[in-house]
Amino acid sequence: MFCGRNVLNDIINDLRAEHEANRALLAAIEERLASEASKDPVIMLQQWDASGMFPEEIKNAPDDAHHYRERRLFRALCARLGRPRFDGLDLDVRHEDLRRHRSNAMEAGGRRREAVKRAQEFLIALREQMDFEEQELYPLLERFLTAEDWRLLQDEFSAYREVQRGAWERLK
After folding, report:
1. Nearest to 43 by CA among 116, 118, 105
2. Is the Cβ–Cβ distance between 67 and 102 less than 8 Å?
3. How far apart are CA 87 and CA 156, in angstroms?
């Protein structure tokens, strides 16, 4: 027997677990940034690459399967409520803002002090985005999407994972 609440919980819990994993990565990065920011000014003149600071999970966050699922959930919410968009809730705009912050952090190059500042700004933006999703978006999804919506989305997400897995196998 199908239970929409279980599918809802599975999808939302998976997204929240991924946020928690990212929060742990953010804490480790912030610790390293604090260490970098306190270094001697002479050392600051050395070439420093901010992109090496970030693991792939963070560098590619706006483009990964996690954000794909969130965008699809958001679009399902808009469709369910008969609204093409919500002011202040547009995930495409918010994810594009994260891409901009990420690019700024990665492009600081050898300007270590600037790179640290930009990296910190990116981490703040990423944390704010996760907070927004958990405190505002996910409760709306839980409130308004139907069991049938959740079932269809789960089917789509499963198919998406299979396509990704197949593409990865072909690349090996």
Report:
1. 116
2. no
3. 27
Query: Quick check: 26 and 123 in contact, CB under 8 A?
Result: yes
- Rounded Cα distance between 93 and 77, Å, is 16
Residues 6+ apart with CB under 8 A from 42: none
DSSP annotation of 54: S
What string of pLDDT tens digits covers the 172 residues of the chain?
Answer: 344 567 777 899 999 998 998 888 888 878 877 776 666 544 443 434 455 556 655 555 545 678 889 989 999 999 998 887 776 677 788 888 888 887 777 676 556 677 777 878 888 988 999 999 999 999 999 999 999 999 999 999 888 877 776 655 655 5
